[in-house]
Amino acid sequence: MTEANDTCHYEKHEWLEEKFYLISVCGTAIALFGIIANITTALVLKRPKMRSPSNIYLNALAICDCFLLVTAVMLYSVEYVYEYFENVLLYKMWYSYVKYCYPLSNAAQTGSIYITVSVTFERYLAVVHPNRRKLKCQQSTTTPVIVAVVVFSIIFNFSKFFEIDIVERAECPNFSRLALVSTPLLSDEIYRYVYTLWLSQLVQVLIPFFTLLIFNTAIAISARKQMHRERRLSTGQAHLNEMKERSRDATVILIVVVLNFLICNSWGLVMTLMEAFYGVPTLVVTWPKFYTFSREAVNFLGK
Question: Which Pfam families does the record associate with it (predicted)?
Fold first, then answer.
């Protein structure tokens, strides 16, 4: 009897109420706003007159971000909702999709990051090197780049399909009936050290963060100089060239998008460096509440 009780043990998350209001209430509200904003953006950018390399990238980014936000809500918000309200039906539903939603959400995150990097590079060429035609991105090259990013994102995160399993314990009631368990792959020390710790952090955080920081700074400086130059040259003119205005608008939108990305992921970079320097076990033991909520914030803000 004691063995059965141990097997069927179920324990709620620590600080559940705080996590429920932080992630399930506030986080979901922010995610819903983001989904509506991205759908609106995608519809606007689909108009024929809006077609340009930058806008094609931004349209793909909006679609990718929508998928990312939906999966983030399904993964993080729903888990705390079923625990907080002790809803068995929602609990079963969450376990029915979590194994597949987890890698798809990570793939969407990778895709979102590298579409942002791609459109930043396109704007960098257009703004910083406007006279080098051979370097300019064309509409015909954007689709292959987006497809390549999607394929890379799926391949890079494909192993996550095999990291967790769902175990059903028929003898256990209610919330102790189903459980997530690590597969041998995730339990492998080499895999966890090389892929989960270093490779994932390198690809998902370090490389894109500093790439975007460098390119976005160069774009902002060059765009500012260009605007001052155009003001001097266009004195007395009623209208500026329409193509230049569109290019400038795309550049401003991109700068805002990238700044948002850098702000949302800056704490993720700090957490990555802390995990590398101190180690996760030390952070969990020394600053349990700080580390737990920082990780929760990074998981959701990074989305």
Answer: 7tm_1
